[in-house]
Design goal:
Helix content: 25-40%
Oligomer: single chain
Shape: globular
CATH class of the largest domain: Alpha Beta
CATH topology of the largest domain: Peroxisomal Thiolase, Chain A, domain 1
Bound molecules: acetoacetyl-coenzyme A
Number of helices: 11
Distance between the termini: 41 Å
Radius of gyration: 20 Å
Strand content: 15-25%
Number of domains: 2
Order of helices and strands: EEHHEHEHEHEEEEEEHEHHHEEHEHEE
CATH architecture of the largest domain: 3-Layer(aba) Sandwich
Length: about 375
């Protein structure tokens, strides 16, 4: 039985900072950010967008195309959860009016959360082929103003529908996973800003990539040239570029060109949205599907990484007619409609969003009609509303 990704929806908030403006404000050469880090723009979440509202908005992108009564599982993967106890899934389930019989919970392992959910979901669908699973990755990457990591922030969510007979990607059984208990990135409970050892995290990411990619190829008797494309977790696009260079080292010219071209297609959305932690790999997958040159049956490798650290390499094959399931125009419009912030505006909005609103204060969103937003806290309970 074929199981895989049937739908992909993504959402990013309606404001951004341009990396050239940020570079000037931080007395850096813009090419360091544009080329050295590989980021062009960064989405900014104001106080009215959080991981729950973004996850609802990402899922709404495809909800009217699916049979809601078949959804048996709803997993929410996040690093930037809104509650220490209740899962984001329950807020999402309520907004989307899913059946009370759905199994809903949240998972955490830094940027690996969506992949963890996807792996659980594919097992669930293999056992329950008449049911489907929604898996959401939703995050706001915050390192802090004027930090080295500032240029690698971002905000957004990706939602996947996992089903039997999927219309976008068929997941291949098997994977290569690798983990170690290390401290490359973490966020203590009392902090809204992540702590990171950036250079160390890059090194571990590349080591884990080599390990899982080589192990996967060995397990499956595959060569690098068998892959039409490889997509990577992209906290910033230069990190994936470094992994891709490792993947193509010593390969023939044709393989080199193909995997470099597919990487270029796969980084487009990420370079303009920034790091969305759990959703980053799947935003890159969407970017590849929209901007790359894939044919039915093409083998795509996926490398997932979550600091702390946990990595997994797996693969999938492209399904005939996948492009009909993807809303490229809608995805481009989401980016085109964003308002450009000055660095001063960004700093103010960033700082405001770090504070929870006072009980009873109603927040007003400037998102488009129909979009969900965080409307404030009433009696200590978070309120979500559609605009
Ligand atoms: N033109 C072109 N390139 C330039 C340049 C210029 N003028 N000036 C510098 N560069 C290049 C440098 O040569 C360097 O390239 P290489 O990496 O190829 O050597 C690159 O720009 C960056 O320069 P620096 O290393 O000097 O930059 P920095 O000290 O400011 O740090 C960073 C960069 C380490 C990426 C920092 O931004 C950071 O710590 N970011 C966060 C790290 C991160 O995201 N880690 C991922 C963790 S995984 C994750 O997503 C978390 C999770 O699991 C939830």
């Amino acid at each position: 039985m074929k199981v895989g990704i049937d739908q992909i929806g993504y959402f990013t908030p309606n404001k951004y900072v341009d990396m050239v403006d940020l570079a000037h404000a931080r007395n850096q050469d813009p090419n360091k950010f544009l080329i050295g880090i590989g980021q062009s723009k960064m989405s900014v979440a104001d106080a009215t967008q959080d991981t729950v509202s973004m996850g609802i908005n990402a899922t709404l992108r495809y909800l009217n195309k699916i049979n809601k009564s078949k959804v048996g599982l709803l997993i929410f993967g996040t690093e930037s959860s809104v509650d220490q106890s209740k899962s984001g899934s329950l807020f999402v389930k309520s907004a989307l009016k899913l059946d009370p019989s759905v199994r809903a919970f949240e998972v955490k392992e830094a940027c690996f959360g969506l992949t963890a959910g996807l792996m659980i979901a594919q097992d669930f669908v293999r056992l329950h082929p008449d049911q489907t699973a929604i898996v959401i990755g939703s995050d706001i990457a915050r390192y802090g103003l004027k930090t080295a990591g500032e240029v690698t922030q971002g905000a957004g969510s990706v939602s996947l529908l996992i089903s039997s007979n999927p219309r976008i990607l068929e997941l291949n059984e098997g994977h290569s996973a690798y983990s170690e208990d290390i401290n490359d990135f973490w966020r203590p409970n009392n902090s809204k800003l992540a702590k990171v050892d950036g250079k160390y995290s890059t090194q571990v990411y590349l080591d884990f990539f080599k390990h899982t990619f080589n192990d996967y190829k060995e397990q499956k008797n595959l060569e690098t040239r068998d892959f039409a494309a490889i997509v990577y977790h992209l906290p910033f696009t230069k990190m994936g570029l470094k992994a891709n260079r490792i993947a193509i080292e010593g390969e023939d010219e044709e393989t080199n060109a193909r995997l470099m071209d597919s990487f270029t297609a796969a980084k487009e959305l990420n370079a303009n949205v920034g790091n969305i932690y759990t959703g980053s790999l799947y935003l890159s997958l969407l970017s590849l599907l929209e901007n790359g040159d894939l044919k039915a049956g093409d083998l795509t490798g996926l490398f997932s990484y979550g600091s702390g650290a946990m990595a997994e390499f797996y693969s999938a094959n492209v399904v005939e007619g996948y492009e009909k399931q993807i809303d490229k125009a809608g995805d481009e419009a989401l980016l085109a409609k964003r308002k450009k912030l000055s660095v001063d505006e960004y700093e103010r909005i960033f700082s405001e969003a770090l504070e929870d609103p006072k009980n009873g204060v109603e927040l007003v969103s400037d998102e488009d009609s129909g979009k969900y937003y965080f409307a404030g806290i009433k009696d200590d309970i978070r309120q979500y509303q559609a605009k």
